[in-house]
Amino acid sequence: MFIGDLDKVVNLLLSLSGRLARVENALNNLDDSTSPGDRQSLLEKQRMLIQQHEDAKELKENLDRRERVVLDILASYLSEESLADYEHFVKMKSALIIEQRELEDKIHLGEEQLKCLFDSLQPERAK
């Protein structure tokens, strides 16, 4: 159950961080022609995402405490080597989730760039 929760909380933090970054980029790229309503909408989204991100960090802190409790319990059942393997697994699980998300983002960006490139070549093919 702990490992499943770890997976969910790490993915939640990554998702919220990405969404918050996109909103902040949108806010930074607003120009003078942007309506006050659009600006206010983005500011409200940013405020909500910041609060959600803080809540998710709190969940992660609680999960870290649970990890220590689980580790203490497992210490009485596992050998030192098995316990070390478990600790390594938990650390790698988070790292691999983060790496997977980064790779997925790179693939998505590459697909978008490829589509744009393909679309830019379409008018030339019609000639």
UniProtKB/TrEMBL annotation:
Keywords: Coiled coil, Cytoplasm, Cytoskeleton. GO terms for cellular component: adherens junction; apical junction complex; apical plasma membrane; cortical actin cytoskeleton. The keyword Cytoplasm applies. Residues 42-69 form a coiled coil. It is found in: Cytoplasm, Cytoskeleton. The keyword Coiled coil applies. One of its GO terms (molecular function) is actin filament binding. Residues 1-122 form the ASD2 domain. Pfam families: ASD2. GO terms for biological process: actin filament organization. Belongs to the shroom family. This is ASD2 domain-containing protein. The lineage of its organism: Eukaryota, Metazoa, Chordata, Craniata, Vertebrata.
